[in-house]
């Protein structure tokens, strides 16, 4: 029989997949913060396959167990060292392999960074994230980097940096300087990763994450969807994150911003149909929320070209953090005016609550 709307389930019952509450549970397969770190790919596949409304319902339930339902955290990004990066990440405007026309710049002066941080604070941001187009920081830059961290922290802002790979002593120095978060993304599944980057291995990324953890900083780790990967890759990507020894406190989900002159950007621009479907994007956010219930799920790059409706669905699916301002690192962002209007329409407010995963980790 032709079933244009799919097979109805016998009793119209919602499909409930065991979604553990965030409270501490005694079980040897849970991470030491009480959350599951033993998710299987099969379980994550089942979540992705749920009817969309069941998936959103479960994600919203998981969200409300740990987070203030109408609060969204605001962070501001600044590129402290732009362009000329020796890595070949196929999405990135700042790679020396890209023909994006971006001019390579030197590391910014500390004072200029502090001016930008003060502006971010005045515009309501609670966290200031500084990014450098490096494979890894050079030891000779560490004094300046640490001065940026302590200066921004002294303004009462939370600090985050993303500088590429870190050695153990570098991670320790950053922690001592007061760095709250280190952002280092896995970007995709272990299988798809090699299609995107060849100059840095997945394992090297995992090693840096381990050093960040050992130094006592909070981990910000996520990736990009819409790079031409399959759902299997999105499953593998979230599976890797959700089975780390502890969930990252912050999980940025970026939608590929197609930048001309980059391998992946050019492909997306030429083959319009490879753009990720909005519903599939929302599903990815929802599965991140369910599998990592206490983490902040950050709706990161790609909001500029996302409709208000899709963003609202992402918030319903459990996203509770965004970057504000007109610019990300080099690409455009939704802008403060658009965000203020969206918050007003949705009744959202900037986050004042504590982050549950960080509180639990202390
Ligand atoms: N160089 C450092 C590194 O890669 O570790 C830090 C900066 S890098 C720009 C931070 C993250 O931004 C990347 O890992 C990637 O997930 C994201 N990103 C970069 N370009 C992007 C793009 N065009 N679209 C979406 N996300 C992007
Ligand atoms: C992350 O996952 N997304 C942010 C942050 N971490 C550093 C960066 C997005 C960059 C988007 C492309 C650009 O601005 O060049
Ligand atoms: Fe360099 Fe980071 Fe861009 Fe990769 S994502 S090319 S490491 S700046």
Description:
It is a single chain. By secondary structure, the protein is of the alpha/beta class. It has one domain: TIM Barrel (Alpha-Beta Barrel), CATH 3.20.20.70. 39% of the residues lie in helices and 13% in strands. Strands 1, 2, 3, 4, 5, 6, 7, 8, 9 and 10 form a 10-stranded parallel beta sheet that branches. α3 packs parallel to α4 (142-154) and α4 runs parallel beside α5. Residues 1-11 and 20-32 have low confidence and may be disordered.
List keywords for this structure.
13% strand; 10 strands; binds 6-(5-methyl-2-OXO-imidazolidin-4-yl)-hexanoic acid; 362 residues; alpha/beta; binds S-adenosylmethionine; binds iron/sulfur cluster; 39% helix
How would the blueprint of this fold be written?
Layout: H1 41-49, H2 52-66, E1 71-81, H3 110-122, E2 127-132, H4 142-154, E3 158-162, H5 168-177, E4 181-183, H6 190-196, H7 202-214, E5 218-220, E6 223-225, H8 231-242, E7 250-255, H9 263-270, H10 278-291, E8 296-299, H11 308-316, E9 321-324, H12 336-346, E10 349-350, H13 356-361
Parallel strand pairs: 1-2, 1-9, 1-10, 2-3, 3-4, 4-5, 6-7, 7-8, 8-9
Helix pairs in contact: 1-8, 2-10, 3-4, 4-5, 5-7, 8-10, 10-11
The structure holds S-adenosylmethionine, 6-(5-methyl-2-OXO-imidazolidin-4-yl)-hexanoic acid and iron/sulfur cluster (SF4).
S-adenosylmethionine is lined by residues 91-92, 131, 133-134, 162, 164, 184-185, 187, 223-224, 254, 256-257, 259, 301, 329, 331.
